[in-house]
Design goal:
The chain is an alpha/beta fold and 494 residues long. The protein folds into two domains: 263 residues, Rossmann fold, CATH 3.40.50; 213 residues, Rossmann fold (3-Layer(aba) Sandwich). The chain is built from 20 helices and 16 strands. It is globular.
């Protein structure tokens, strides 16, 4: 098959530039890249189609075509739309139909047909619906995370809807997601919980319940060549030296050999670094057992300055530093500048040898690939119970890590004590879970099997909606009808 992966936000390149540094260069890029490359290894021709731009602040995405070394069946195709500069995902909506026009022109010029389209996030889903209807080919939708859950967390209401729309464009996102869900032949989720929680939200429930057979659970995998416990990469020794230097700089000498609680997610309020630090501050016995190591990309010595961070990140760092100073945690906490995926994998292996624990205290995680990567490197995981990690770390009566109620500081501490006290058991269980359930080739095969089933019986159907994203007033009507009013016509706000 010739398969397209549509992912207009962020971008892709062989060096994996800016991953985790910018919100649009997050986990979905890892997901798309790894499944695409796995499909290409299975003999299919795969194009990752994304947006082309020329921006000195985010350079490396100026060329039309790019390739991954040793993957001859896969390529990156960058299609221009809108201004020349990078555009944050919230502001892509007006340019998606232009992007689709240019995608069609590109493949017409190449003289190549397309057999299946996979789409990612609401913007990719909307563009895929437009493209599929014009090419008469089927498409799948992988939402990763849906807008209604973020609206719930931010407490969007009739009182603040206009302000929230101006910042996050929630109305456009909700409308795009509903179009993507309604017209997709397949909807891929990472866990059954994601399907039951995200797509059963009243903002989507009316359309999701009409197509129960479209949903396919395909768990993401991990790149064992990068994150394997016994893997090595070109950054290994350099990363080890960098970590040692940071720890000797920040941690009291008498504490250097203690295990570490490792936080490696980007600095974002929803990742809830603050909740972890507050839990640690309240538990003297946990402080006696372990230190904390926080990945902080682009900042060499946070205790000296973190002026290089963005404003929202600075606000969070101010809060973290306030907890550290108020509870006299200096000498127990280190900030480490981890700049690449290779360095991240090496850091996991380093801390695994220190009998450490990976911790993710997000208020919600749609799936949570990071804990799987950490477990693959031998670092057992204590992770939020809210979202997909609940399916990853528990199966029946068997546990592969520890789930945390991240709204309860005592429960966070409890989970960390549990893993530190039984490190070898949880390390073995984590490795077992990865090896038996989470490889990218298995994920790719699940996608391909489902896509083949659709192609055999696919009949092109006429899909009707405005070619361009509807006017703002129409988008707000969608928000009012399907979110603010709830599914029964009453407000969902409390």
């Amino acid at each position: 098959m010739h398969i397209l992966f549509l992912n207009p936000q962020g971008n892709f390149d062989p060096q994996d530039r800016y991953w985790t540094e910018h919100p649009d260069f997050g986990g979905q890029l890892v997901y798309v890249k790894e499944i695409a490359l796995a499909m290409s290894e299975l003999g299919h021709t795969v194009d990752i189609v994304t947006r082309r731009f020329n921006d000195h602040e985010l350079s490396g995405f100026e060329t039309l075509i790019d390739h991954y070394k040793d993957y001859p069946n896969a390529r990156i195709v960058r299609i221009h739309a809108g201004p020349d500069q990078f555009i944050d995902k919230e502001k892509l909506w007006p340019f998606l139909s232009e992007w689709v026009d240019h995608i069609i022109a590109f493949y017409q010029e190449e003289g190549r047909s397309i057999d299946f389209i996979t789409t990612h996030y609401g913007d990719g889903g909307y563009a895929g619906a437009l493209l599929a209807s014009r090419l008469n080919v089927p498409y799948s939708f992988t939402g990763h995370s849906l807008g209604a859950q973020k609206m719930d967390k931010l407490k969007v209401s009739k009182d603040n809807a206009v302000q929230m729309q101006a910042r996050y464009f929630f109305a456009d996102r909700l409308m795009a997601e509903r179009i993507a869900i309604q017209n997709a032949s397949l909807i891929f989720t990472s866990t059954a919980q994601e399907k039951d929680e995200q797509y059963n939200h009243f903002a989507y429930q009316d359309i999701s319940k009409e197509k129960p057979d479209a949903f396919v659970v395909a768990a993401p995998g991990v790149n064992e060549r990068v994150f394997g416990m016994n893997a090595l990469n070109a950054e290994e020794e350099q990363t080890y030296t960098q970590i040692k230097n940071a720890l000797h700089r920040d941690i009291e000498t008498s504490r250097l050999n203690l295990p570490y609680i490792v936080l490696a997610s980007r600095l974002d309020q929803k990742k809830n670094h603050l909740g972890l630090l507050e839990a640690y501050a309240k538990d003297k016995s946990l402080q006696a057992k372990a230190n904390i190591a926080i990945s902080l990309r682009g900042v060499e010595d946070a205790f000296s300055t973190y002026d290089a961070l963005k404003n929202e990140e600075k606000v969070l760092m101010d809060q973290l530093m306030d907890v550290i100073n108020t509870h006299q945690l200096k000498g127990m906490v280190s900030f480490i500048n981890i700049m690449s995926q290779g360095a991240l994998a090496a850091s996991y292996r380093y801390f695994a040898k220190q009998q450490s624990v990976f911790c993710l205290t997000s208020t919600y995680e749609p799936f949570g690939l990071a804990p799987i990567e950490a477990m693959c490197a031998g670092l057992p995981a204590a992770v939020t119970k809210y979202g997909g990690p609940a399916d990853v770390l528990k199966s029946g009566n068997e546990s592969f890590g520890v789930l945390l109620d991240v709204n309860d500081h005592f429960d966070i501490a409890r989970g960390l004590h549990e893993i530190i006290d039984h490190h070898s058991t949880y390390q073995a269980q984590g490795l077992k879970r990865v090896e038996t359930s989470y490889t990218w080739k298995a994920t790719a095969k699940k996608y391909l099997e489902s896509m083949d089933g659709i192609r055999l019986n696919y009949k092109p159907k006429k899909i009707t909606w405005p070619k361009d994203v509807p006017a703002q007033c129409d988008a707000m009507n969608v928000l009012n009808t399907h979110y603010l009013g709830g599914h029964d016509g009453t407000s969902n706000q409390t």
